[in-house]
Amino acid sequence: MPAPPTKLLAPGVEQQLHEYEGLGHLRVTARGDVLTIESGPPKDPVRHARLRRQTVNLWTLDMATRGGRWEPTPFRDTKDRLVVVLVEQFGWVLTPQHETPWEPGTN
To answer: Does residue 101 register a pLDDT over 60?
Structure first.
């Protein structure tokens, strides 16, 4: 059975994320076999994590680094289970990013 295009899966992953309190700022974009979880302005998004399709039903989870690169994790599962792992074990990665960086001496 051929895998459905990722662009058809993005809305379902976004809906799954929005079921969690405080994650309404996230959106999911699709490109090739990758679903990217991001927030912020569409022209300058903050990338939080991504799901990469490995087989029809198996995906891997990657985390964004501060340098704009992707760090693979050892997790490989269905996309729905990986979203749960992401939210429950790495929820801090999904927090909204401040528009202005924090500087010492400011509140």
So the answer is: no
Tokens of 21: 């309190």
Query: Which distant-in-sequence residues (6+ apart) come within 8 Å of 49 by Cβ?
Result: 36, 37, 61, 62, 63, 64, 86, 90, 93, 94
Alpha helices by DSSP H, listed for the chain, are 6-18, 79-89
User: Pick from 62, 93, 92: which is nearest to 79 by CA?
Assistant: 62
29-37 CB contacts, 8 Å cutoff, 24+ apart: 30/5, 30/6, 31/6, 32/6, 33/6, 34/6, 35/6, 35/9, 35/10, 35/79, 37/13, 37/86, 37/94
Q: What is the pLDDT of residue 59?
A: 98
Which secondary structure element, helix H or strand E, spans residue 75, and what is its range? strand 70-77
More confident position, 5 or 59:
59
C-alpha radius of gyration, the chain, whole number: 14
